[in-house]
Amino acid sequence: MENTVKNSADYGYCNDGKVYLKGYSEYPERQIGVVRNTEDEALQYFVNRFTIAENKVSLLFEQVEEAQNKGSYLTKLLQLRKNLVEFDGLGNFMPLLERLDGLELELRELILHNQIKNLEIKRALIEELREASKSEEWAETTEAIMEIKTKWLKTGPVDKSLQDGVEEEFNGIVDDFFVRRREYYAEKNRIIDEKLATLQRIVDEARNLRYEKDVDAGFLKIKDLQREWKTISQVPPKKQSQLWKQFKRSSDFFFERYNRDKGIVSTPRVDPRVQQMKDMTTELEGLFKQQDLIPQTSEKAKGYLVKWKELSALAKNVDRSIAERFRNICDKIFEMNYLLRVISYRHPALHEKPRIEQLKIMINQMDYMTKKEKNELDSFISDANYNGQMGDKLVMNKINTQKRKISMKETLLIEFKKELEILLDQ
């Protein structure tokens, strides 16, 4: 301790109950504390405190070494140097300050290098932005501009003397694009509002024509309104649909009056595709009654399913009851074909047996298959519940498909039993 205290004389001393740090470099001598007990204890205390300053400098160097963005530590370095020259401790501050001076120079060179690099990146982004903003594909361009803006925000600062200039140029291009986009949509909305106003006028005029006394003049006016309606396009579908229903209701009302006055009997136009779908359904229902033709009917039903999808995609206003009839008869044919195929392994000459015997065999087999599939479905549902899969779309589709198959088996089973009961009562 004696040596430490003696060495402290190089950096400070005690006088009149006070502890002083000697001046060094351009920093003057200053008081850093008071003597509370002995002068040696006071000097040793401030010698020990000097290690705090050393540790802070060492810690800063470690942090800079580990940091990716080293330049961000410049402010912390400048604050540490300010704190060092005001720090109350006894020791050689010059090596510490010189280390900080060296590190500051490195950081400033690094920052300058990064600022130059950032300026290059930002100028490239400005050009990319300028080119992208020329497009009038508003949705895609907006997305592209937001991506460029994200890159801009992730790019570090440039030299302060240039910062305001590049920011102003970048933001000016962005603002100009969004002004043009706003003006485009404002004009688009104005045009749409005009078109909707025109459609509303057509609807109102058609409504006023419903009780037109001169039906010939009214007929011509309605036709003109229909032609004018066809010239209006690119309006919101939902709003157009609402107005079209109102217009059609008034038009149909007028044409019914016109036909009555002229003695015209109108025949509803049937979509040939809808008629074809009805014919397919009726044909399959007739073929189902011929049990010996079920295998061939099943193949035909498969082809009709493909055809039905093509027609339903093109046809409008398909009656739901027809669609339900078609699906039911297809399910019936497929289940019947499967039943007969299973039975054929044990009873290859089923068609040669009396009808009562056929029905008994079919009832026994169908009853067995129905119970078996019910048990399998119950097990599947239990497993799905246990595994938390009941919300899965594919799982639910499989469950619904199996339920429909089981339901059709039960329907056929009831029909078989009724037919058997009738035959036994004869």
Automatic annotation (TrEMBL):
Superkingdom of origin: Bacteria
InterPro entries: DUF349 (IPR007139)
UniProt-listed Pfam families: DUF349
Protein name (record): DUF349 domain-containing protein
